[in-house]
Design a protein that fits this description.
Helix 6 links the parallel strand 2 and strand 3. The protein folds into two domains: about 110 residues, no CATH class; about 280 residues, Alpha-Beta Barrel (TIM Barrel). By secondary structure, it is of the alpha/beta class. It is globular and about 50 Å long. A four-stranded parallel beta sheet has the order 4-3-2-9. This is Chitin deacetylase. Keywords: Hydrolase, Metal-binding, Signal. InterPro entries: Glyco_hydro/deAcase_b/a-brl (IPR011330), NODB_dom (IPR002509), Polysacc_deacetylase_ArnD (IPR050248). GO terms for molecular function: chitin deacetylase activity; metal ion binding.
Length: about 425
């Protein structure tokens, strides 16, 4: 065998080996950063429409269908049974299940209620950790309940957007399930999402298992459709006692009521028991005292009817004229995150031209713009990915360390991109050498 023959046989072998190494490195890099074109394409196909309940349920290991509209969620399901086990029932006081005249109404108040029950509905009792106002003078925790409602919520978002204020929307699971796109709409306008139960039942009228089901189905619905795990809960009608509190706390919730006297009474408009001028008059009366208040307020308004939005605009302008500063609940209580879990940073996509070294790294567009549920000067939280890329939630409530979380996320993101660029470059270089 001549020298030239040796070269001619050894060169293809070396080339083959280098090609193999290059391809392997490139494949490894692409797998590590999730850039496999086939995977990317198929996952996009699966998760494009988050309103398709059955697909989302399947992806999240859910067995049962979502609870129905206007129905109390079933408790005899595998999901609820598992959630019930999260609660240490020895810490839940054994209080009576309150009576109600009609399903869906607030409970009836008996003649005698124990002070130790701290039942707000019938005695006005607040627990020390109930959020009923904002600590800062003239801070105004702006909240709207009972949505989202097609067209009405959109009008409300538009009105608030014109004035550049953010609010907390206490949504019900059943309404969300009718218009899940509105959850993303609320977030994309910078507002804050919180829970108002699934079926809007008086919480004290429910069994322990029913309370768990109301909270967790709503939480899961919002999480599956947005990637945000809600942290704040306002009981419908403000109906809460120490039994409901003990369950909600253990499931990771902070209870929000409202400041005494700052219920706008707009809900009475639907029942025709109040007029707009009467609401404005009442509001004027409350605003008269606002300069004397050391602490701010949390108000109660609704977004279930067109009239509510008109009233909301008037009340907002009146409050601002008095020097009040409207804001969502996390800002009101100085909570920089406002959720127990937020979406992970958006996936990164490496663009690798054929037979060339990788040139650029393109960040995928977020499905939902980041919420403004953080303090003003904080960097915005990570944009929301499609729900399917969010890991199966941990079952225990976690209080995130805001700054730490964001730092970790940011660092994680840089690390991933840097490593992959290096790996991809090595792979491509090996291919280049081999070619
Ligand atoms: Zn309500």
């Amino acid at each position: 065998m001549t020298a030239s023959e040796k070269r001619s046989t050894s060169t293809p072998r070396r080339s083959k080996v280098l090609l193999w190494i290059g391809s392997a490195a490139l494949a490894l890099a692409m797998v590590s950063c999730g850039v496999n074109a086939g995977d990317s394409g198929s996952s996009k196909k699966k998760i494009r429409d988050p309103t398709k309940g059955p697909d989302l349920r399947k992806m999240n290991g859910q067995v049962s269908a979502w609870p129905g509209y206007g129905e109390k969620p079933e408790t005899n399901t595998p999901e609820v049974k598992a959630w019930v086990k999260e609660v240490d029932w020895s810490k839940v006081p054994k209080l009576p299940i309150r009576k109600v005249k009609h399903s869906g109404d607030p409970p009836l108040c008996p003649d005698h209620v124990k002070d130790s029950d701290c039942w707000w509905t019938c005695t006005g009792c607040h627990a020390p950790d109930d959020i009923i106002d904002c600590p800062d003078t003239k801070a105004w925790g702006l909240t709207y309940d009972d949505g989202p409602e097609p067209q009405i919520t959109e009008r409300l978002l538009k009105m608030l957007g014109e004035k550049n204020y953010t609010a907390t929307m206490f949504v019900t699971g059943m309404k969300s399930s009718q218009a899940p796109y509105l959850l993303k709409e609320i977030l994309s306008h910078g507002h804050h999402l919180a829970s108002h139960s699934w079926s809007h039942s008086g919480m004290t009228t429910l069994t322990n298992e029913e309370i768990v089901a109301e909270l967790k189905w709503t939480e899961k619905y919002i999480f599956d459709h947005t990637g945000y795990r809600v942290k704040y809960f306002r009981p419908p009608y403000g109906d809460i006692d120490n039994r409901v509190r003990a369950i909600a706390r253990q499931l990771g919730y902070k209870i929000v009521i409202w400041t005494d006297g700052w219920d706008s009474q707009d809900w009475q408009l639907e029942e025709h028991t109040i007029t707009e001028p009467q609401i404005v008059k009442l509001w004027k009366g409350e605003l008269g005292d606002v300069t004397k208040r050391r602490r701010g307020v949390v108000t109660l308004e609704h977004d279930g009817d067109r009239q509510f939005v008109n009233v909301a605009r008037t009340l907002l302008e009146m409050g601002i004229a008095k020097g009040m500063r409207p804001m969502d609940i996390p800002k009101c209580v100085h909570d920089p995150i406002g959720y127990r879990e937020v979406p992970k940073p958006a996936n990164t996509t490496l663009v690798v031209p054929k037979k060339e070294a990788p040139k650029k790294v393109v960040a995928a567009k977020p499905a939902v713009p980041a919420p403004v549920a953080v303090a003003k000067k904080e960097p915005p939280p990570a944009p929301a990915p499609e729900p399917a890329v969010v890991e199966e939630p941990k079952e225990e409530a976690i209080e995130p360390e805001p700054v730490k979380d964001q730092g970790v996320n940011a660092a994680g993101s840089r690390f991933t991109v840097g490593s992959l660029v290096t790996a991809c470059t090595l792979g491509a270089l090996a291919i280049g050498l081999a070619m």
